[in-house]
Amino acid sequence: MKRRILSALLAVIMLLTLVFAVACKDDELPDDSDTNEVTPGPGGSNDTETEEPETTDAETDASGLPSEYFSDYVSDPDAKFVGMTALGATGTAVVYDNYKVLSGQNKEMYANDFEGEDPIALFEKMTAVGGDWNGADGDWVVADQEVAEGEDPNKVLTFTGSAKGAMLAFGNNKWGPYRLNVKVGVNDSDSSAQIYFCVTDEKNYYYLNIDAADGGSLCVYQVSAGNEKIASQRLDYAITYGTLCPVSINIGRNEVAVYFDGEEFFRLRTSNEDLAVPLGKIGFSQWKTQVYIDDVVITDIATGNVIYQNDFEDPNALSVATYGIRNGGVWSNPDNSNGDWVITKEQTQDGTEVDNNVLYFGGSLNDYGATVLFDPEIPEDCDGYKITYRAMRLTGADSSEGYPVVYGWDSEADYYCFNLGGWGGCAAFQTIIGGSKINSPATPEQIGMQNYVWQIVEVYVYPDVCYGFYEGRFLQALWID
Ligand SMILES: [Ca+2]
Ligand SMILES: [Ca+2]
To answer: Which of 171, 167, 172, 156 is closest to 209 using CA atoms?
Structure first.
């Protein structure tokens, strides 16, 4: 009897050990799996054609690195984006961790979490164009990250020098396609981080600049033969201090996709020639709510010129508008003959009239999809325009589509929409092509619509991408192919 109890006890202990081992294994999974998920294989479908040879006993070179990715690396003759990687910092509040390079077939080429002995020994010192860094020892240090009590200790890479242009480079200038994953933190407004890619030498490279100054911004630059130019749009983006954001730079043969904090912000292509900014009408609508719209302004981004504006102070402004129905919608009154939507005086929640005219969407709340359209006559040579308006929801639950804006409207079957308020109070871009609708994934969190509060929407429309902002906060990008 005693023996049976003992063996049962032993079995329980063994089971617990097994469960514990499995649980520990899960904990060891790389923390940046989210950046892997959002990133398909670099370079698109073309890259899957070349099969990488399977190696069982990987050969290593003198540095202990797998030779197939380093000393014996075979260049891809079709790769248009090639070169090594580098980490850079200006100011002393930049932190890096979980640096990882994956091959075009998503195999790990190199990973460094800065926990090992002398973890930056294999990095090469370089100085960016315009910088004055002389490669001083001790400017880059591995330090303990400040963590809350009870959290596991973690080592991170930080820059402590005052010089500019300090680059810690790694890799092989023949690399490509590949993917660079790294986590970055910028913790004060005097600092900025530079994540370099396709570095062939100190005068030829690209970099993502993460700048905390002036409210924060993201931008990609290209340096070619020592000359720097902007390679993407420059986007305002508030940097959250004290957090490490995953960055993933997915370098394909003909295209580079740049992800920051899980969102694809930039796409560099060898050619954008076939793309033009979407022209057509712009318009507004709602669904199951009552809404005021005001102060619509469309500007040419490059020149700052106002292409169109409407503050609805002219009561005849609606007479020049036309009407449409959004995809899947039903509107029993498509000529607005019973005045579903009117220009009227704004009223406060207690019914007090305000000396301001607004476009009021307050009619048949059971109809939806009805859209008031304006023709801003966007010049054909426009390289990008910005739609700004303010909106206020008067009624409606968090599931109502409060402030959808349509643009590039050619017909009811062909247009773009930035739809705010649906999906339980979230937002998403929608593309309608030939009458079929494609929804982007809705934002993971509610955007914070409130009744009787004016809120600002901004949509940047470029030939290849649209960016949606709400209350000055970036929400989503839509890529146009
Ligand atoms: Ca670490
Ligand atoms: Ca007004």
So the answer is: 167
Distance 47 CA to ligand 2 centre (A): 53
**Which ligand sits nearest to residue 358's alpha carbon?**
2
Question: Which ligand is located closest to the Cα atom of residue 113?
Answer: 1
Query: How far, in Å, CA of 395 to CA of 270, rounded?
Result: 48
Q: Is 226 exposed, middle or buried (0-12, 13-18, 19+ CB in 10 A)?
A: exposed
- Flag whether 383 is in a domain: yes
| Ligand nearest to C-alpha 313 | 2
- The boundaries of the domain holding residue 127 are 33-48+57-269
Report the separation in Å between the CA atom of 46 and the middle of ligand 2, taken as the mean of its atom positions.
Answer: 52
Residue where a domain terminates, one of 215, 237, 269: 269
- CA dist., res. 437 & res. 315, Å (int): 34
315 domain-assigned: yes
Please state, in angstroms and as integers, the Cα–Cα distance from residue 191 to each residue in 116, 229, 479, following that order.
Answer: 27, 21, 30
> Does 115 lie in the same domain as 176?
yes
Q: Whole-model pTM?
A: 0.77
Question: How far from 325 is each of 280, 329, 333, 343, 452, CA to CA, in Å?
Answer: 15, 6, 10, 19, 26
Residue 100 Cα to ligand 2 midpoint, Å, equals 52
For each of the chain's 481 residues, which pLDDT tens digit applies? Answer: 444 544 554 454 454 444 444 443 333 333 333 333 334 333 333 343 444 555 456 799 888 899 999 999 999 999 999 999 999 999 999 999 999 999 988 999 999 999 999 999 999 999 999 999 999 999 999 999 988 899 999 999 999 999 999 999 999 999 999 999 999 999 999 999 999 999 999 999 999 999 999 999 999 999 999 999 999 988 989 999 989 999 999 999 999 999 999 989 999 988 766 789 999 999 999 888 899 999 999 999 989 999 999 999 997 877 778 999 999 888 888 888 888 889 999 999 999 999 999 999 986 655 678 899 999 999 999 999 999 999 999 988 787 888 999 999 999 999 999 999 999 999 999 999 999 999 999 999 999 999 999 999 999 999 989 999 999 999 999 998 7
Expressed in angstroms and rounded, the spacing between residue 56 Cα and the centre of ligand 1 is 28
Ligand closest in space to the Cα of 116: 1
For residue 113, report the distance from its CA to the centre of ligand 1, in Å.
4
Query: Is residue 178 one of the residues assigned to a domain?
Result: yes
Q: Which ligand is nearest to the CA of 390?
A: 2
Residues 171, 290 within the same domain: no
